[in-house]
Amino acid sequence: MTAAEAKALGHPTRLRIVFACRERAMTNKELAEALDTTPGTIHYHLRPLVAQGFLEPLAPRSGPRGSREQPYRATGRSWELAGSAATLSALSTVAADELLAAAPEHVVALTRLGLRLTGEERDRLVQRLSAVLEDALATSRERAAVPDGSSAARREVTVLVAVTTEPEGSETEPD
């Protein structure tokens, strides 16, 4: 991830905008209502997301009383964070908010493990997790490309994986 991309994602509102535009295109006004903020705030945060390719503007449409509305859609771009404190902080905030807002019956899995691994074993774990997620992403994209008219067959699933390493010399015991 480049510095400009990390900066574009480095605010909780920007991540919420990207997440909100995953399933359907949304206008500035719709985003402001959905995220409980002002259209001006949304407009400010849209620009870097479009510039860095996380959102794309669609063809303008006519709104109520003939006004011009600009819808935006998430491009589906995925990203990996490494070394971006602002983006990590923003993502942590949004993830915590989503988890706290979810009804307990909608939290399918929540796991926290403490493992003792070598650097090589950790890298292999990350590769295996990435492969599983890439497979799920490919399946999701295939389904999105072939609308079957049944939204019941497809439900939004959010997955967040974080692999952290304790600083060298840490005496923390695994869970």
Q: Brief overview, please?
A:
It is built from 6 helices and 5 strands.
Query: Gyration radius, to the nearest Å?
Result: 19 Å
What would CATH call the architecture of the largest domain?
Orthogonal Bundle
| CATH class (first level) name of the largest domain | Mainly Alpha
Q: DSSP helix count?
A: 6
CATH fold descriptor of the largest domain: Arc Repressor Mutant, subunit A
Given as residue ranges, the uncertain stretches (5+ residues, pLDDT < 50) are: none
- How large is the share of residues in beta strands? 5-15%
Name the overall outline. globular
Describe the structure.
With 175 residues, this protein is mainly alpha-helical. The chain has two domains: 1-101, Arc Repressor Mutant, subunit A (Orthogonal Bundle), CATH 1.10.10; 104-175, no CATH class. Helix content is 45%, strand content 7%. It is built from six helices and five strands. It has helices at 3-8, 12-20, 28-34, 39-51, 85-101, 119-145; strands at 26-27, 55-57, 61-62, 68-69, 71-74. The strands form two sheets. It has a three-stranded antiparallel beta sheet with strand order 1-5-2. Helix 3 crosses helix 4 (39-51).
